[in-house]
Write a structure and sequence with these properties.
It is a single chain. With 442 residues, the protein is mainly alpha-helical. It folds into two domains: 201 residues, MFS general substrate transporter like domains (Growth Hormone, Chain: A, Up-down Bundle), CATH 1.20.1250; 231 residues, Up-down Bundle (Growth Hormone, Chain: A), CATH 1.20.1250.20. It has 15 helices and no strands.
Length: 442
């Protein structure tokens, strides 16, 4: 039975503390990352004679690298030890990392700030398998879709809020002490929320943690691949991060070169993307009450494909302003074609939420109680590969002379066969739900 209101979970100790830990952590990550990027791009913070573009790429790589290096170890530890205690230790580590960052800000040392960023990525890599792995222990089976939707919505809204806050704050004078105090306060608040979590016994207390990172990374991915239905769900989530990364990377270029929009339009698009995913994630609970939750996966694929293809055609006209100057929000929505593009982007984002939440739930339900966190560790690795793959995909097609619009169209078209492959995982669930509905009516 599906609970009447998923937001009632926010009143419970078994969900609210983890919800707050996740949101505060995602906000802090992106606040810190954004401040570093702005300081490199506009504040003259550098290492030697390195170009800002290289340093920004390096900072992004340093945050993602721990997901490759430590996900296998993180998954093992999450299965072997007390999960609530591990989350508390991670939040304590975050306070220490923000202390390192504070010294970096005071000394204006980019190497120290990049080291802190690497540590933040490491902390996030360890938290991911814990977050998704503990939810089935905290929630009833019928609450999982709603709980996952809330957690995912909070994640993307916190990412958006942290990115905007970091970008805007750093524009003020003498704001570094406020940034330092804010990051430390948010880390401390995350630790307090973690302290409020109920105790969680180890899922697999007899598991011997192995520290050969390369071998264990290969083993956890292989362990997930053996479970074919589960692995298709993993691949579906990975595909979403691949597709989303393409849009996230190309949206600023598309906005400037195709639409003639300024940075405010870019910010609006990024906000619409994050808010759309949050809306789609929350809708899964409501729509799942009248439909089989598994049916939302092909519905999401359909939305991603249709809106993605229309996004290409909506940008086919000459939308650049005749004056040659970039337009702002006051002018952008005066054009029906530009409004159509905004609607398409929002539709894709909502469809992405509908697509991913049932897949996260499938991974949780089809994992064993003793290896669930390791399955999400494998997902961490593959998601990181998907994000790197998106960058390579763009680099290769750009090198071949493919335009931004056609790269986005290519991604939307590839979504069709990938979506068919992924949604096969939902076929049995849809059939079973239809049979239950038929029996209930007879």
């Amino acid at each position: 039975m599906t609970p009447h209101n998923q937001f009632s979970l926010l009143k419970t100790r078994r969900f609210l503390p983890l919800f707050l830990v996740q949101g505060l952590g995602a906000f802090n990550d992106n606040l810190f990352k954004s401040v570093i990027v702005v300081l490199i791009t506009y504040g003259g913070l550098t290492i030697g004679a390195m170009e800002p573009e290289i340093l920004v790429s390096l900072s992004a790589a340093l945050f993602v690298l721990p997901f490759f290096l430590f996900s296998a170890l993180a998954g093992q530890m999450a299965d072997a030890y007390d999960r609530s205690r591990l989350i508390q230790w991670l939040k304590l580590c975050e306070i220490g990392i923000m202390g390192v960052a504070a010294f970096g800000f005071v000394l204006k040392s980019l190497p120290l700030l990049l080291l802190a960023l690497f540590f933040m990525g490491t902390q996030s890599a360890f938290f991911g398998p814990l977050k998704w792995g503990v939810l089935p222990d905290l929630l009833e089976s019928h609450e999982l879709v709603g709980g996952n939707g809330l957690a995912n919505a909070m994640t993307f809204l916190a990412i958006l809020a942290g990115t905007i806050a970091g970008t805007v704050l750093i524009g003020f004078e003498n704001v570094i002490p406020i940034v330092i105090a804010g990051c430390l306060a948010i880390a401390l608040a995350g630790y307090c929320a973690a302290r409020a979590m109920p105790r969680l016994k180890p899922a697999n207390p007899g598991l011997q943690v192995q520290y050969n990172l390369i071998r264990e990374t290969a083993l956890i991915v292989k362990r997930a691949a053996v479970k074919r239905v589960l692995f298709r769900s993993v691949l579906g989530i990975c595909w979403f991060w691949f597709l989303g990364s393409i849009y996230y990377i190309l949206l600023p270029i598309f906005t400037k070169d195709v639409l003639g929009g300024d940075t405010n339009v870019v910010a609006l698009f990024l906000a619409a993307y994050s808010i759309g995913i949050a809306i789609g994630s929350l809708l899964c609970h409501q729509l799942g009450r009248g439909l089989a939750t598994e049916l939302l996966v092909p519905l999401g694929v359909l939305g991603l494909t249709v809106f993605g293809i229309d996004f290409y055609f909506a940008g086919a006209g000459d939308l650049l302003p005749a004056t040659g100057q970039l337009i702002g929000l006051d002018v952008y929505f005066q054009s029906a074609e530009r409004l159509r593009i905004f609607i398409d982007l929002t539709g894709m984002a909502i469809s992405g939420g509908l697509f991913t939440i049932p897949l996260y739930t499938q991974v949780q339900k089809r994992s064993g109680d003793d290896d669930r966190s390791r399955m999400f560790a494998a997902l961490n690795v593959l998601n990181a590969l998907g994000m790197v793959g998106a960058s390579l995909f763009i680099m290769v097609l750009t090198g071949l002379g493919v335009s931004v619009r056609h790269i986005l169209l290519t991604a939307a078209l590839i979504n069709i066969p990938v979506g068919v492959f992924i949604t096969r995982v939902t076929a049995k669930g849809i059939y079973d739900a239809l049979m239950r509905r038929i029996h209930s009516l007879s």
